[in-house]
From TrEMBL:
InterPro entries with a match to the protein in the record: 2H_phosphoesterase_YjcG-like, Cyclic_Pdiesterase
Keywords in alphabetical order: Ligase
Species of provenance: Pedobacter chinensis
Domain of life: Bacteria
Example GO molecular function: ligase activity
Name of the molecule in the record: 2'-5' RNA ligase family protein
Pfam families found in the cross-reference section: 2_5_RNA_ligase2
Xref: SUPFAM superfamilies: LigT-like
Amino acid sequence: MENLFLVCLVPPPAIVEDIDEIRAFISAKFNVHESLKRPAHITLYNPVKVTSSMQEQQFFKALEEATYSENFKQIVKNFSSFPEHTFYLDVEQNAGIMNLHAQIKTQLKPLKLLTSKDNFKFTPHLTLAFKDVKPPTYYAIMDEFKDRKFKREFTVSGFSVYKHIDKKWRPFKEIAFKLPSEKPKPLRLFE
């Protein structure tokens, strides 16, 4: 058994439609298509390979432990990039998304699903074009969008897990937040 999972935030359908329209425009105008193979999403944890049913149970149990969070507003605003290969919508950093990422990372770390080289600085973003973007195309896309504005806001009340099936990322599980006050307290011998 071997499964590939992606932990992410997926904006509401109306916002995804707007994002997909931008991605389709970029794909048609600049002949880049890789981003269209993936759903519009904000990665919270790099894709991980799970190789046994026991490891999969541990993975989802750890994710359940990362759900004690208040709902938060998330803003996706304007365009940015990782030079010279990735063009994206900027995801505004706020306490909600940064804490959620940190909780997921903390809970999954003991499972050692990522190599040390996958331990990256978290820069929340929503990719519009990457992988098949070469420097000349990157600069053309940047020029096309330099004066354009974009802003959408949505409430985050949980996160998604996608599974790689038949060479596509497909929705697998939605994990809703639980109130932080409901988190079980560690048992102590002396109070």
